[in-house]
Task: structure prediction
Amino acid sequence: MIKAVIFDIDGTLVDSVDMHAQAWKEAFEHFGKKIPFDEVRHQIGKGGDQLMPVFFSKEELADGAWRRDPPLMRSVTGAARATKSAS
Result:
């Protein structure tokens, strides 16, 4: 019998905002966008569909190179693992 369930709504049990912002910052740097950490952190809480247009032009987003990039996907996966191990 289940007596309790605990789940983390981002930031409730683990403050992962800085890790999330750092992952985005590193992903942007991979594509040549040098964006200060504080600017990225300020956007955390938005979905990627709202966050990316803040830093990428419509043309850059239409190119879609960021979707096809295995190193980027590895860095995002690594950031997710770091967040998971911190919880």
In short: The chain has a mean pLDDT of 78. Residues 17-86 form one domain.
